Amino acid sequence: MPADPAELLRERGYRVTGQRLAVLRAVTGEPHMTADAVAEAVRAQIGAISLQAVYDVLAVLVDVGLIRRIQPAGSPARFEARVSDNHHHVICRSCGRTADVDCAVGPAPCLTAVDDRGYEIDEAEVIYWGRCPECLSA
Fold it and tell me: Which of 8, 28, 74, 118 qualifies as a FRET site for 95, CA 20 to 30 Å off?
């Protein structure tokens, strides 16, 4: 996360609000949160906030580039503050736990498609599925 997220919001023409900063703190504090979990964390910090307001703030923060939105198949969208690289995710089929996975070879190897069909590719999303260590031992 940039050293001064408030300044980045201002540079992009967005007002700095307590709600926006609280949502950013929540997502930064615990990666891969759903909007519902973000709302709970923000309510614990600042009091009342509607779920719609949380969705609106998340959309702004994604637009500004302070957070990233991922939406694994069959799961609600999740949000994370790790936006500075092209990393991937591993998700447990049993409990839904999500973890970051770095690219396996060199700098962002997944950005080079065999046939890009004329697209300018700037991001690749890879999700690995399996079972986490806790679910395997249960």
Answer: 28
Residues 39, 22: Cα–Cα separation, whole Å: 10
Q: Report helix, strand or coil for 2.
A: coil
CATH number, domain of 105, equals: 3.30.1490.190
pLDDT above 70 covers what percent of the chain?
Answer: 91
Q: Which domain holds residue 69?
A: 5-79
Note whether 13 and 70 are same-domain residues. Answer: yes
- 129 phi and psi, to 5 degrees? -115, 145
> Rounded distance, CA 120 to CA 122, Å?
6
Per residue in 29-52, pLDDT (tens digit) is: 999 999 999 999 999 999 999 999
Strands (E), 13-107: 33-34, 68-70, 78-80, 88-92, 98-101
**pLDDT tens per residue, range 61-78:** 999 889 999 998 888 999
